[in-house]
Amino acid sequence: MKDIIKRLAVSFAAFLMWIVFTIGVLLALPLLPVAICIYAVTGNEGMRDFTYRVGKAIDQVCNAAWFFKGHPKETVSSHCGRIILKYGEDAPIKAKVVFWITNLFKRNHVLDSIEEPFKDLPTGVETW
């Protein structure tokens, strides 16, 4: 009985987090292009900070949704860089796709963006 209550509590908390996340994304995505344009025209540092923070958060969410592994705070590029270093030509196709796309804009971006390992890895999170 305790297990059922615990699972229901965790599920309810996850559902609430999903609602908050969805509201945040629905607010941030339309505002992001506006903030980019305002920063480009005015140089407003508040808009630059907003753009950076929202962009980094989207990048981290994409990492969690795209790979299901690694640290939740890690960016897609950093994660792909570690995968490419570890597996080389045998890397999963997902990592290769990110590598190829980012190479169009900046050569070896994923390798240059590898972050230091996070020390606070959540329990049960599998890394590459």
Structure report:
There is one protein chain. The chain is mainly alpha-helical and 128 residues long. Helix 3 packs across helix 4. It starts with a helix and ends in a 16-residue tail after the last helix.
What gross morphology would you assign?
flat
Low-confidence parts lasting 5 or more residues at pLDDT below 50? none
**Gap from first CA to last CA:** 36 Å
H/I helix tally: 5
Write the topology of this structure.
Blueprint: H1 2-42, H2 45-67, H3 76-87, H4 93-105, H5 109-112
Helix pairs in contact: 1-2, 3-4
Descriptive tags:
single chain, 128 residues, mainly alpha, 73% helix
In short:
This protein is mainly alpha-helical.
